[in-house]
Amino acid sequence: MSTPTTSTPSPTPASRLRTGAGTFLANNGALVGLVALCLALFIATPNFLTGPNLLNIGIQASTIAVLAFGMTFVIVAGGIDLSVGSVAALSAMASAWVYSAAGLPGGLSLLAGLATGAALGAISGIAIAFGRLPSFIATLAMLSVARGLTLVLSDGRPIATSPAVSFLGGTLFGIPVPILVLAVAGLVAAFILNRTVVGRSMYAVGGNAEAARLSGIPVKRVLVTVFALAGVYAALAGMLLAGRLNSAQPQAAAGYELDAIAAVVIGGASLAGGVGRVSGTLVGALILAVIRNGLNLLNVSSFWQQVVIGLVIAVAVGIDVLRRKNTRH
Where located (predicted)? Predict the structure, then answer.
């Protein structure tokens, strides 16, 4: 005697639409939020969606976005880097110092800044991978060391940058160079994460470092590479900032590490590691820049701007926690 089989009803077009919309929002919530934010500010102030103001937003976002691209590598690999702001300042200062004091050509001074960032990041990575220090502690120590060395190198005074670094704050064919650097740096970061062995290893290490090790991934080498890359991106961000100011400032980029972390988390990365996209990080950096720009246009106090940014970060982290809970269940 055969038992009747029950067929599962096929989903209706309405249910498929709801499912598709839910999936889209889950994967692109930050982008939807950015569009909604821009529309709200356009309604609130007609000066928002103008060419000069949009270029201004792009320039403002460029430094944080480049810094956050490097932070994306770290967070995807399951770490955190509190030193990127200080590394940015020291790298820019080193670049300016070798040009003004050592007399190196401008191009070499630019390379010296990038090499400084890579070396500082690699030192943090070695302390974490081989010294077994938590990334929070290792990079907190580097934050203090790098900022102190910046003050020692500059004697607490600004140093003029080389023409190569000053060029980073100018324009090329009518387009601000920081925006061009932002685009190139983002494409390179996306290529590293999505198209290279080390990029795929970052996701594996961030998802489960022990499982990655048992799979034959050189976890320690990956961690050193991750923090060295973050140092390079921090150095580039520092020189972008110095190029806009035409000088390397000893207190430059103070607190920028928090904005970089916020941009990555707002963009959908998980602080637990193993999840993150460069495109999401870019959207997160743009959200922070748009909020600050819009509040400035609305004449909102800078004190209240910090409150708003803090609330946005809290909401982004809360969403990440809920997403991870739903994934486990």
Answer: Cell membrane
Per the structure, the complete domain to which residue 277 belongs is given by 47-328
CATH number of the structural domain spanning residue 198? 1.10.3470
3-state secondary structure the chain: CCCCCCCCCCCCHHHHHHHHHHHHHHHHHHHHHHHHHHHHHHHHCCCCCCHHHHHHHHHHHHHHHHHHHHHHHHHHCCCCCCCHHHHHHHHHHHHHHHHHCCCCCHHHHHHHHHHHHHHHHHHHHHHHHCCCCCHHHHHHHHHHHHHHHHHHHHCCCCEECCHHHHHCCCEECCEEHHHHHHHHHHHHHHHHHHHCHHHHHHHHHHHCHHHHHHCCCCHHHHHHHHHHHHHHHHHHHHHHHHHHHCEECCCCCCCHHHHHHHHHHHCCCCCCCCCCCHHHHHHHHHHHHHHHHHHHHCCCCHHHHHHHHHHHHHHHHHHHHHHHHHHHC
Residue 321 included in any domain: yes
Q: Which amino acid is at 96?
A: A
Write down the pTM of the prediction. 0.89
Largest CA distance in the chain: 94
**pLDDT tens digits for range 42-74:** 999 888 989 999 999 999 999 999 999 999 999
How many structural domains does the chain have? 1
Q: Does residue 23 form part of some domain?
A: no
